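Journal club side-thread
Mid-discussion, someone asked how the predicted structure for our own chain would compare to the paper's figures. Pasting it here so we can look after the session.
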Amino acid sequence: MENQTLQEQFKTTIAKNLQQKLAIKNPMALPRLSKIVVNIGVKDAVADKKNIERMNVAVAQITGQKPKVAKAKKSIASFKVREGDAIGVVVTIRGKRMYAFFDKLVKIVLPRIKDFRGVRRTSFDGQGNYTLGLHEYSVFPEIDPASVERLQGMEIVIVTTARTNEEGIALLEALGTPFVKEQSHG
């Protein structure tokens, strides 16, 4: 049981429990992960092109997949950004890699964050998709903290097939997401 991947666990046990919890009769209607998008907006990308390359390598190490360079859609003079400038890197992970990444995120990465008390339940978008922002990417085990020259945040969007935030929360809880414990005021 313990050496099963998260994807296998979902198919064998998690899906059944979720189906009962949400009272969904058709197993195909169950919410599930569809993709995870990892996105880093690179600081000083315009000033120093090497920053994009560094982040490219870091994101590839973290996700096991080659990232795509995100380019500016329009020019913003106050940020000294021109349309078409490389301003970040983005990776969309699906299938086995997605489950492996999610498992690593929940079991290894989040617990390594200093003063971590759980992720907020309020970061859903209304359609069951969850966005998680990390202040620094160096909490991933693949990244050598000594190689990090400057702090760089990242955004992880967990896209699910859930139709509501409640279904999204139930799915992510079933998959082991450490949500913040609700404080009882009393």
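Post-session note: The two ends are 40 Å apart (CA to CA).
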